[in-house]
C-alpha cells in the first residue's frame, strides 16, 4: 500500500480496537505527510531506509531498528525517504499507560519488530479475536521495555537559528566557528551560545553535530558513498566522520549502509 493510498483509506481513530498497524512502502520519491494528529498514540517503525518525524520544535530521526513514539493528540509531521519501508502502529489512549508521556525514539528489538510487522499484516477485525488480544498484550508488554535513543534534532522557532540551520544545510562543508556565526547574525559570541542552549538544550557544537548527523543519514540513504558524505559535510578526514557516526549510532557508516540501506533488506540482519 502506498502512503497516499494509506492516507486516503485509513484513519487510526476509525477502529474501536486497542492496536492497529499498517506497513507502508515509499518507492521512488521522498514523501512528507502534512502536519496532523489523532487520538491514538503513534509508533513509526523504520524497516528500511530513513524517516523523520517533526513534533513541535524537535526533529526526531528514525533509522532502521528504531521507532519514534508520538503520544495521542500530538501534532506531528512524518517524512519518509525514497526506497524506505515503515510500519505505522497506532495504540488507543487507554492502552498506553506503560509508554512514555513525551515524544522519543526507541531502539526496537527483533521480537518487537516482527510482532509489529505481523499486526500490520492482519485485518483490523482479527485483532478483536482472542488470538489478537494475546498478541496485543505481548506486543505492549515488550514495547514498554524498549530503551530510548538520542536521535533528536531540536529545531528552533527563532529566526536567527533557523537562518544558521539553513546556511549549514546549504553549505555544510563551510565549518564556521561560533564567533563567525555570531558575526553573521549580528550577535556576540556569548549571546549566540546562550541562545542555542536556551532554544535547543544543546551546546552549539552538539546542535551542529546533530544536524550533520541528520544530513549524513539522508545522504547515505540516497546512495552517496561514505567518503563523499564525509567530504560534503566538511570533515577533515573520513576517519573523523566515521568516529562521529559510530559514536552516535553504534555502527560505522559502511556497516550501517550494509545492514539497513541494501536493496531488499528490512530486518537489519
TrEMBL record:
Keyword Transcription regulation: yes
Name of protein: Transcriptional regulator, AraC family
Transmembrane regions listed in the UniProt entry: none
GO molecular function annotation: DNA-binding transcription factor activity; sequence-specific DNA binding
Keywords, in A-Z order: DNA-binding, Repressor, Transcription, Transcription regulation
SUPFAM superfamilies: Homeodomain-like (SSF46689), RmlC-like cupins (SSF51182)
Matches recorded under InterPro entries: Homeodomain-like_sf, HTH_AraC, RmlC-like_jellyroll, RmlC_Cupin_sf
Domain of life of the native organism: Bacteria
Classification lineage: Bacteria, Pseudomonadati, Thermodesulfobacteriota, Desulfovibrionia, Desulfovibrionales
Entries under SMART domains matching the protein: HTH_ARAC
Residues annotated as signal peptide: none
Any Pfam family the entry gives: HTH_18
HTH araC/xylS-type domain span: 162-259
Amino acid at each position: 500500500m502506498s502512503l497516499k493510498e494509506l492516507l486516503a483509506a485509513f484513519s487510526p481513530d476509525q477502529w474501536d480496537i486497542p492496536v492497529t498497524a499498517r506497513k507502508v512502502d515509499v518507492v521512488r520519491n521522498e514523501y512528507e505527510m502534512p502536519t496532523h494528529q489523532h487520538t491514538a498514540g503513534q509508533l513509526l517503525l523504520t524497516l528500511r531506509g530513513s524517516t523523520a518525524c517533526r513534533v513541535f520544535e524537535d526533529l526526531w530521526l528514525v533509522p532502521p531498528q528504531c521507532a519514534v513514539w508520538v503520544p495521542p493528540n500530538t501534532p506531528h509531521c512524518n517524512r519518509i525517504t525514497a526506497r524506505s519501508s515503515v510500519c505505522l502502529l497506532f495504540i488507543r489512549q487507554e492502552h498506553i499507560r506503560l509508554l512514555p508521556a513525551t515524544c522519543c525514539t526507541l531502539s526496537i528489538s527483533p521480537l518487537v519488530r516482527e510482532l509489529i510487522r505481523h499486526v500490520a499484516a492482519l485485518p483490523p477485525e482479527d485483532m478483536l479475536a482472542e488470538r489478537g488480544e494475546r498478541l496485543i498484550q505481548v506486543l505492549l508488554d515488550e514495547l514498554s521495555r524498549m530503551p530510548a535513543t538520542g536521535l533528536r534534532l531540536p529545531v528552533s522557532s527563532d529566526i536567527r537559528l533557523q537562518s544558521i540551520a539553513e546556511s549549514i544545510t546549504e553549505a555544510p562543508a563551510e565549518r564556521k566557528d561560533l564567533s563567525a556565526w555570531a558575526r553573521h547574525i549580528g550577535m556576540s559570541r556569548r549571546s549566540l551560545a546562550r541562545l542555542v542552549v536556551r532554544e535547543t538544550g544543546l551546546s552549539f557544537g552538539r546542535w551542529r553535530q546533530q544536524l550533520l548527523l541528520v544530513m549524513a543519514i539522508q545522504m547515505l540513504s540516497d546512495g552517496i558513498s561514505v567518503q563523499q558524505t564525509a567530504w560534503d559535510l566538511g570533515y577533515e578526514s573520513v576517519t573523523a566522520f566515521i568516529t562521529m557516526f559510530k559514536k552516535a549510532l553504534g555502527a560505522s557508516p559502511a556497516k550501517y549502509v550494509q545492514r539497513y540501506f541494501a536493496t531488499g533488506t528490512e530486518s537489519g540482519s
